[in-house]
Specification:
By secondary structure, the chain is mainly α. It is built from 4 helices and no strands.
Length: about 50
């Protein structure tokens, strides 16, 4: 959620950035490699839990 507010982007745009931007992945301690995230609703679900 911090990254979403810092980048001023929507859930869908944040997932697009996570798929394309290695710096975003590094910040989130996530490495996707050739895999891609498609469900942008996971951003909201992670904030609720």
């Amino acid at each position: 959620m911090f990254l979403k507010h810092y980048a001023c982007c929507s859930d869908k745009r944040l997932i697009e950035q996570l798929n394309a931007n290695i710096d975003y992945q590094f910040f989130c301690d996530l490495y996707l490699g050739y895999n891609r995230l498609e469900n942008y609703k996971i951003v909201v679900k992670s904030a609720v839990n």
